[in-house]
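Section 4.2 – Deliverable D4.2 (structural model, holo form)

The reporting period included a commitment to supply a predicted holo structure for the target in complex with flavin-adenine dinucleotide. Inputs used:
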Amino acid sequence: MNPHSTSRSGGAQDSPDPPDPADPEGPAVHEGAVHDVAVIGAGVVGCAIARELSGHDLSVALLDAHDDVGNGTSKANTAILHTGFDATPGTLESRLVRRGYALLSDYARATGIPVERTGALLVAWTREELDALPALREKAAKNGYAHCREVTAEEVYRRLPALGEGVLGGLTVPDESIICPWTTTLAFATEAQSRGARVLLGHRVTGVDGDGGEDRGDRDDGATNTGSGVTVLRTPHGEVAARWVVNAAGLASAELDRLFGYSRFRVTPRRGELLVYDKFARPLANSIVLPVPSSRGKGVLISPTIYGNVMLGPTAQDLDDPEATGTSEAGFDFLLAKGARLMPRLLEEEVTASYAGLRAAIDHGDYLIEADPARRYLVAGGIRSTGLSASMAIAEHVRELLTTAGLRAEPRTGLPAPPRMPNIGEAGVRPYQDQARIARDSAYGRVVCFCERVTEGEIRDACASPLPPAGTDGLRRRTRAMNGRCQGFYCGARVEALLDDGLAARREGQGAPSRERGHCAAPAPQPAATAPGEAPA
Ligand SMILES: Cc1cc2nc3c(=O)[nH]c(=O)nc-3n(C[C@H](O)[C@H](O)[C@H](O)COP(=O)(O)OP(=O)(O)OC[C@H]3O[C@@H](n4cnc5c(N)ncnc54)[C@H](O)[C@@H]3O)c2cc1C
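Output (structure tokens):
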């Protein structure tokens, strides 16, 4: 723990009462508590950072503007756990994606995050793309990944018979994997909270007071200090004070950076639209089909999803509006045209859903992760297309940069076991398939959402979990309810009623609901019970 801090490690226990949700302007409920570190942004990156830091002797607050974790870009991506084979060698992104792949693969086994090692096949459709394959293999080797292999067109069609005509060859990437992005973010946040971090949802940071800086009269080099040592973050629910601040606000990271006095980068929201095909399409694409990348990015791919569907996308369109997450007719047409070329048979299947995510593109060409020791501030920006894969390595890197900058962080002993997350992946055993579990608790035998086979027991568990959903969107990400073919047309009313009941039961059990999820007297997450290798992956 930072010796300058006035709060104790495991700040959740020391915190003042949570805000009254009925009073959105609420009092300044966080007055008095000074955290060692405040992390702004509870996407996959911020949650990973909060998890990492709370494994050390530090009091941590994790703030997000939304009423749930993982509600920004982290909920809408292509959900590939990248090896980093195609990153630009020598970049921070290359190093952190590679390390992140290893860390997240292990973490997924420990916590039950669904992962499937489907592998990927990079497909060349033109002579130019075919000629580029050897260089891509060499690039992969420079990125520390030596398992790519060039294959003939016959081999490509043997693996993926549904591909359109005209394939000239391919490159295999056997370790590319698909992962559940929702469970990943939730697992990080759940573990951070179980380690004592305060999860402050609905806490949009609107202003920054105080000069950060160092405490008066405390510098080894004898220079005069003028700083108070504390930065105060203003939110609609009061002020949150911290010795160090990490900006992991994704699309808003540049805006927040300016509140800290910087003007060093601009975020361009780059929209990626995707189509999700029905589960009948899954046999068509048992591995990820990648295009040969161009300077515009990774291009349009076809990928199986962890939930048993097939995905086509994403597009890449630069926008001005960081909230423009709607899909467009132009995007739909573009994807259909691409799909017709890549895999015509896919277009015969039904589209279950379409969605769009916004990449936080910056003009830097690499992640922008920099610490300012004088301001006690760190920005993690430009985490554009690979943040899910790199998240745990970014967190490790952030902790190292902070300690180099002066944060004292000793690893804690006696940490709680990592949470065991509910399996929502198709490759693992789901509750409706688990006879022994149903025999113990019949709620797992009562299917509510028939498209996705979600049971009453899972909805009840989600409501009772340490970080319950704030609404049906959050429930979808925790259980898959209403995510299937009917999109909630048949089950929506029943699912909503169960959600309302579950959240009401939770409130009755512990008093008023709280935006400060770190305060919930929720059941502790289940300790990891399985050994590596037993996860659904
Ligand atoms: C179409 C698409 C496909 C992708 N595919 C992949 C892939 O296959 N594999 C991969 O590894 N990566 C992929 N990515 C990239 C990955 O999704 C991102 O890098 C990652 O989600 C970024 O996470 P984040 O935590 O930085 O941002 P976010 O998830 O956006 O989180 C930032 C959070 O900050 C909060 N916030 C913002 N302003 C404030 C404020 N003032 N106060 C409080 N909170 C605030 C927001 O509410 C948000 O929750 C893809 C991205 C897109 C868009």
